[in-house]
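Hi support team,

I'm opening this ticket because the web form for multi-chain structure prediction keeps timing out on my end. I have pasted the exact lines I submitted so you can reproduce it. The total is 850 residues across two entries, so I didn't expect it to be a heavy job. Is there a limit I'm missing, or should I split the entries? Thanks in advance, R.K.
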Amino acid sequence: MTTSITALALRKTFGRTRALDGLDLEVEAGEVHGFLGPNGSGKSTTIRVLLGLLRADGGTVRLLGGDPWRDAVPLHRRLAYVPGDVTLWPNLSGGEVIDLYARLRGPLDPARRAELLDRFQLDPAKKGRTYSKGNRQKVALVAAFASDAELLILDEPTSGLDPLMEEVFQSCVREARDRGRTVLLSSHILSEVETLCDRVSIIRDGRTVETGTLASLRHLARTALTAELTDPARLPEGLDRLPGVHDVHTDGHLVRLAAEPEGLDAVLRALTAAGVRSLTATPPTLEELFLRHYQQEPAGSAERPAATEGAAR
Amino acid sequence: MSAAALPATARPAGGGRPFAGTGALYRLALRRDRVLIPLWVLGIGGLLAAGPPGLAALYSTAAERAQAAAGMSGNSSLRALYGPVLDDSLGALVVWRYGVVAAVLTAVMSLLLVVRHTRDEEESGRQEMVSSAMVGRRAPLTAALLTAVTANLAVALVATAALGGEGLRGALAHGLALGATGLLFAAAAATAAQLTESARLARGLGAALLGAAFVLRAAGDAARDDGSSPLTWLSPLGWAQNIRPFAGERWWVLALFAAATLALAALAHTLAARRDLGASFLAARPGAPEGRLGTPGALAWRLQRGTLLGWTLAFAPAAVLFGSLADGAGALLEDDDSTREILIRLGGEQAITDAFLAAMTGVLGILAALYAVAAVLRLHTEETAHRAEPLLAHPVGRLRWAAGHLLIAFAGPAVLLTAAALGLALGHGRDLPALLLGCLAQLPAVWTLAAVAFTLYAFLPRAAPAGWAIATLCLLIGWVGPVLDLPAVVMDLSPFTHVPKLPGADPNWAPVAALVVVAAAVLAAGLARLRRRDLLT
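Hello R.K., no limit was hit. The queue was backed up. Here is the completed structure from your submission:
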């Protein structure tokens, strides 16, 4: 089996709100898959469908070779889940919750539990109501990593963690991958995604707008160019009409523009025609990559379908 | 010394304007309770408004009323339950029969309101965000108390209107007695909310206080027939009686309420000013670093066992009290036709002592149903607090998760009613087998209400709290229906109408079996739905 999660054209509506609108997601076995999108884009809804807590209105979904709605209980034995906002029982200690969760799935490994408590510096004797947000998050993380499940579904798992704990979290994810586990990681922390994820899927308004390895996504994005020209007058007319060239600004000898990969060749020819004295080319940062998708017009505007198609090609 | 000499503007900012934001928080509380408060007020008002026509139908002439009043006043058992009969006017009789119930309901409303807007807010973490705004340190508590003042004013007004036809002076005295009782318990709850870290525990403390007030008053009234016992005067419920509505009103007792309420409110404010947000005076113990819980059922038991223990500890002494009143009640009612009539409608046609015991068994049965609804609604709490979600992401089926709580909701009432039977038998001094049978015969009705509450939750999770309304409706049908002589169609709505009135009656088990079948069918429908629906997100 090569894929852990396959979702095709998932749809889910709540009353008049369309939460998922034809979402596709494919997570291969053994990879760390980043799951990104602005707030309210449908990430948590997707995860709840994958967990069999919600039933999709349309589309197909397979998880570890089963149907997450019908086979929820046997599938859950093989996965661990960390929600983005962990709520604990106010009168149960963190240790009691960790042990409960561990026992529900199978036998508990006390050595692994002790090791994780130590690494996350979590006091298991405190009652649920006295934990801070970050510590509540740690309770769920310790429970999930102690389980050694073959699939980890993490929904913004590090919200509230300090940078030191973030580091511990990242090493736990890497160890899980090294043991051949699969991880679906929903996150807004781009550095976390960049260091951990093999592939990412970006969703917006309940649809997948981009999916692939980070390198391939970068390849699709625009490169920012700044050139100092010896003779700006020889610059050909209509530079900004070249396919794949955007945001052309000229300021004396300086030209600034953004070029998509297919436009790079033409634009460089045009620039050298005017004599290039210096040239800087900045590849897109991950942040720019995401922001470009996050900032697009909301669903329903006239130009959106075209823009989405362009981004997906 | 030097601090006192500083001009007001130089004081540290933290101490400045401690009441800032009170108005906004008060409006927020009223907005959140725009349904809850009117429901309580109308419920209490309705209970009282039903009193005059019901009692007028029973005692149509002044002579009948006088005879009934004399008889009931002379009976220590009835005095312990309802308080002394202070006059034989219709107004005084209504206050006698429903005054204590209305006062207890008003106190419960006030307790719940104040804890809901103080400790609940802190425990949930919402208060933190609110207090970071332009909100003074004393504002949240003050706003909660103002909300209680508003609700109690409404109760006083509606209660006065309900009995206004019997004389405005007496009606006003009774309305004020109810409002003052409510406010006193609001202030007590405000203090309890400072002491504990958990809202549940604060409510428990308030309820224990109310229970103690009831027992003190019952003991005092059993001893004397004019409310003058020192024990009665130790209880705020006794003070409310001693305002003597429709029986030579004693307005000065209101000053007693005012003094106690102000003292408690001041204590709550002092405690609140001395503690950190979210902290408490009764320190919470650390938990176990390792847990033994390993199944959803064990978790449900762990979450619910404290509540079941509390209810059992309340049930047993109440049953002992009721049991010890049975013989006395029987002796009185031999020669009071009209009250016997009520008891027979409540408890069935049989020896009068048995009728009394059967009526009390019915009361305990309905209370056990309230417990069952509370236990069922834990599922709703777990789901809306998002604690069910991670649990169900484990290899735990929905039915297995629900089963743990349902088992407690269905077996818990059996525990309560067994404790009730033991208490009744202990107080009565005999008849344990018959009382046990009578108490356990209530179970099918309890289960039916629990099943209805569960199925409502399964189909309409957002409307689940309406399970309380259904149980309360059955409670009112059971308590007020026999007095008002409601039509059989209405009476039949409550499952408790269909259980045999034991001990005494020749039991007809067919309707009991039917209730078991209905409860099972309703439960099955709910379980089927729970498996299929989306979890609340």
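A quick check on our side: Residues 1-14 of chain B have pLDDT under 50 and may be disordered. Let us know if the file doesn't open in your viewer.
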